[in-house]
Amino acid sequence: MTESEEIERLRSKVNQGVVSVQSSGGSGSGWVATPNGLLVTNVHVVAYDESVIVRQGDVETSARVVYADTKLDIAFLLPNRAIGSALPMADSRTLIPGVTVYAVGHPLGLPLSMTRGILSAPERPTRHGVLHLQIDAILNPGKSGGPLIVGDGMVVGVNTYTWGDGPNLGFAVPVHSFHEALRETARTPSDQLRARTPLYRCLECDEPFATHHSHCHRCGVSTPFGAGGSFRSYSAEGAQAERTLVTVLAQLGFDPSRVAYGESMWRLPSAEGVETWVEIDPSGRYVVFRSWLAKVPKDNFESVYRFLLAANDVELGTCAVGISYPGIITLRFVEPSAFLNTNHLEQNLAQLLAATRVLSELLRSRWGCEPPPPRWSVAALEGS
Q: Tens digit of pLDDT for each residue in 308-365?
């Protein structure tokens, strides 16, 4: 059997069990997991909606969110009418690295698609200590919540997220991690499930929270979807830093939700071809403010270096000029999260943005420095 024939065989086998999910926050995927029609998807697909729209082929219906595990990022849905047919599940703990897997779903609301890859690691510790399946099958946007299957059509995981900008570094929640919760939910009568409200818990301390809360009232950590729709988890200091940053960005005329870029990162356009990035480090202890000014010129770079050394001796406040990999001139300052002050931070950030405009223009007009690419990836930022 050829590879295309194998994929077509699997498509026909799982086609009736995969659904698209539409919530107020966007679209994703899901799959029929039990004979009585319960659907599995990701919490970040349904966010805090009480009900969502699900589609399977030409059939469309609403479905109630009846269970949510924020740490696993798993949600169960009960559709208002029968939709699709249940897919069989297998325990991923029996799999070995290198086995072929297929990520199935409805990317960007398009018809069913499959991407082929291998299981890189069956138990990879990732966010919040959760063990994920690491795969290299591409997880396009909208495939979140869809099934990860093996060659016999058995579901072994739930497609969940990719790491940074790495399209071939994907992670799926193994089915055995929520299998007992699924069985218990499936045993509950449908009328009781329809009256149920999911219990959402803090990712850090496991304290229950209401969906309108932006931060955990016990430990101060940002709740999932509380700011910009992403999973963010810091120490209490980091959570306070996020609140301060959002306030300052708004005071400087930026819409925090529009300039948010991934987790704990914001991208501020500050001059033509130049962007300023604000990032809370993974520990939540520091906040880094960095403007990418220009590329180091190929010619006459000694003069540029002398200028940069001298620039740090003039009045730049807390900012410092430097060169980051791969040959990018930057202007930056770092603030400890524990000491962030709204007025002080607003002054420093305004100074950084003003200096960014002056220095970027000077570097281009005097030395002919080229501007940096308009969009730097998360990987480039982390590698600097």
A: 888 887 767 789 998 876 678 999 999 988 788 888 888 899 899 989 999 999 998 9
Q: Is 150 in contact with 99 (CB distance < 8 Å)?
A: yes
Q: How confident is the model at residue 235 (pLDDT cuts 50, 70, 90)?
A: low
Query: Amino acid letter at 151?
Result: G
Distance from CA of residue 112 to its chain's centroid? 22
- The sign of the dihedral angle between the CA atoms of 194, 197, 203, 206 is negative
For residue 125, give the 3-state DSSP assignment: strand
Domains of the chain with CATH codes: 1-199 (2.40.10.120), 236-382 (3.30.1460.10)
Strand ordering across the sheet containing 286-295? 265-271, 274-280, 286-295, 328-336, 320-324
9 vs 158: CA distance, rounded Å = 20
Q: Which of 120, 118, 121 is nearest to 101 (CA)?
A: 118
| Distance from chain centroid for Cα 24 | 17
Residue written as token pair 């919040």? 128
Whole-number Å distance between alpha carbons of 48 and 198 = 9
Task: List the one residue out of 82, 77, 74 whose CA is nearest residue 39.
Answer: 77
Residue 277 and residue 342: Cα distance in Å, rounded? 18
Separation CA 118–CA 99 (nearest Å): 5
